[in-house]
Design goal:
alpha/beta, about 375 residues, binds pyridoxal-5'-phosphate, Aspartate Aminotransferase, domain 1, three-stranded antiparallel β-sheet, Aspartate Aminotransferase, domain 2
């Protein structure tokens, strides 16, 4: 092994300097200005309703920490209850509560597909799915974004070249950086036709779409071959994730999933509040209607600016060049809008963008002011 010529801290500093020259160095910035960047679509995160839910839980003695792995003393009544509530609400046989969506995807992709299987994933699938696939023994192949025919061709090629296990089809229902929606029913039909399992990530759709906010995959959650991920840190305004699956898959994850076994159970307090968040979204048709009206109103104004519409509450404005993207984001921030620039590798090369998120934390007036500022800056 060759010796490194610089010390590790020097290496880190050089790497950061390289990111600087590429306008890719990131830093942490507190929320400031009107919210056009969070995933708190229904404005539940800071709501009185969830604060009250947390207070009530604390008053009845729900502990802050679980104190251990779910397989040891960390398993609490609040975990069991939120999983029962989630399974009933989404219509799945079972549910498993995890501390984050990233941890859940990492667990699912690394644990479920086996050596002879192959995971066929959308080209734009989230980093957490890639993390799980990296740890998986199964082969993986990407297919063009939202392209069901490309997925079908890839599976057929794999079979023709001797692929003998189960194909897995992995996609998101609403893409976090593009705001576009997957052809969910067509992927489900393909899975049925070729005997595939489905990984469906509903991170940005749960709470916002579907009957009672059950998501764009509502109806598939009860199917044996579908594993659906509902995250709790976005429209639900909390933290964590619910894996919606069959009893046997839940049991397998509990017995074989390293990220489940060797990790402290999520906070029972959070589990209790997530239960309340599920009830809030179930009764949240008025919130969803308000958000929809806001998105439609924004769409007309974006279209007038020549921005290609995503059709959802996530609206990217692709700038392309990274430094320019960050300059425009900074200018908008200086005018009081919390808008963040998104650069590669989070998005493909050459597609640096502003990611606008429409939430109930901002109102019509905020949107009008933003459009005026964008007109000037773009
Ligand atoms: C599509 C998708 N899946 C999973 C995750 C991870 O979820 P969490 O933020 O709860 O870790 C995210 C978060 O950005 C996401 O956008």
């Amino acid at each position: 092994m060759g010796e490194r010529e610089v010390t590790l801290p020097q290496f880190y500093a050089q790497d950061l300097a390289r990111l600087d020259t590429m306008a890719r160095r990131r830093g942490l910035a507190l929320p400031r200005g009107r919210d056009f960047s969070s995933n708190d679509y229904l404005a539940l995160a800071g709501s009185d309703a969830l604060r009250d839910a947390a207070m009530r839980a604390l008053e009845r003695g729900v502990p802050m920490g679980s104190g251990g792995s779910r397989l040891l003393r960390g398993h609490r009544a609040e975990h069991a209850r939120v999983e029962e509530d989630a399974a009933r609400f989404f219509g799945s046989e079972a549910a498993l509560f995890m501390s984050t969506g990233f941890a859940a995807n990492s667990l699912l992709f690394s644990t479920l597909p086996q050596k002879e299987d192959c995971i066929f994933h959308d080209a734009l699938i989230h980093a957490s799915a890639h993390e799980g696939m990296r740890l998986s023994r199964a082969e993986r192949r990407g297919f063009a974004h939202n392209d069901v025919d490309a997925a079908a061709d890839a599976i057929a090629q794999w079979r023709a070249s001797g692929g003998s296990g189960t194909p897995w089809i992995a996609f998101e229902t609403l893409y976090s950086m593009d705001g576009d929606i997957a052809p969910v029913a067509e992927f489900a039909a393909l899975a049925r036709a070729v005997g595939a399992m489905l990984f469906i990530d509903e991170a940005h759709a749960v709470g916002v779409y579907g009957p009672q906010g059950r998501g764009l995959a509502s109806g598939l959650q009860g199917e044996e071959h579908a594993i659906v991920l509902a995250t709790c840190g976005k429209a639900l305004g909390c933290e964590g994730a619910l894996v919606l699956c069959s009893d046997v898959i839940r049991d397998f994850l509990i017995n074989r999933g390293r990220g489940f076994i060797f990790s402290t159970a999520p906070s029972p307090l959070m589990a209790a509040v997530v239960g309340d968040a599920l009830r809030l979204i179930a009764g949240g048709d008025d919130l969803r209607q308000r958000l929809r009206t806001r998105v439609q109103g924004a769409a007309d104004r974006f279209a007038a600016l020549g921005i290609v519409l995503s059709g959802s509450q996530i609206q990217p404005v692709v700038i392309g060049e990274e430094a320019r993207t960050m300059e425009i984001a900074a200018a908008l921030q200086a005018e009081g809008f919390d808008i963040r620039g998104i650069r590669p590798p989070t998005v493909p090369e050459g597609t640096a963008r502003l990611r606008l998120s429409i939430t109930l934390n901002s109102d019509e007036e905020d949107m009008d002011a933003l459009i005026q500022a964008m007109e000037r800056l773009l």
